[in-house]
Amino acid sequence: xxxxxxxxxxxxxxxxxxxxxxxxxxxxxxxxNMESAGGPSMPAHIEPALCAxxxxxxxxxxxxxxxLSGTFNIIxxxxxxxxxxxxxxRTLAAASAHLGAALITFSTGTRNPDYMxxxxxxxxxxxxxREMLESxxxxxxxxxxxxxxxxxxxxxxxxxxxxxxxxxxLDEMRSPNLKVVIDAAxxxxxxxxxxxxxxxxxxxxxxxxxxxxxxxxxxxRDGDAGNQAAGTGLLDYERYLSLLxxxxxxxxxxxxxxxxxxxxxxxxxxxxxxxPYTG
Length: 279
What we know:
Largest sheet: 8 strands, parallel, barrel
Strand order of the largest sheet: 1-2-3-4-5-6-7-8
Order of helices and strands: EHEHEHEHEHEHEHEH
């Protein structure tokens, strides 16, 4: 496993200085957000020269581009807002080869119109599931057309809010261009923490072969939570990392939901936990 970080963790005036900060903290992989190159997270257009500059910056610092951030609310009630998201996804997918990106992160959406990671009671409705499937089919076709893979995250506040629903989505889509980003801190509905071991075990049993990216953060409670720095909460990291290892995961483990000043401690925490699997 390669330890990495969200580039947005480091706020710098240029993309090169942003990547310098990644490297200075001893990290060799990133989930890249286009904000770190001075534009919006979901751009309408990306100049070829910018792609070349990002790719050169990564190569010069020996940093792997583990994934591009491409999340938007795919079932947003405002159809125009949703279409803007798809247009930006097309832009990111078209740029992925020039950037050297094989994965684009994605969400399964929420009926909450104000916050993409906010719960809404209708998320569990059959209508929301059908709408999510329609949007996902569009997104997967965009990915296939550009030879890139979408990785979606089971998240308690989105339509796909469990490992079982994630498995159902994968089985319904049956696409090699759709895989999973696993974030153990996002799997626990209200009241579920006492079943942490069973929930983690089930998630990896159901999704193991389809996990293409992993996130590292923590949670202080269950429910709509999971926004703490890794090692500062209640997540059983020994079990999480052992399960990643057991399914043969060799991708990037990406730190997020932390402040820059927390990076050294979180990196040290994960390095210690990963030691049994790194020889």
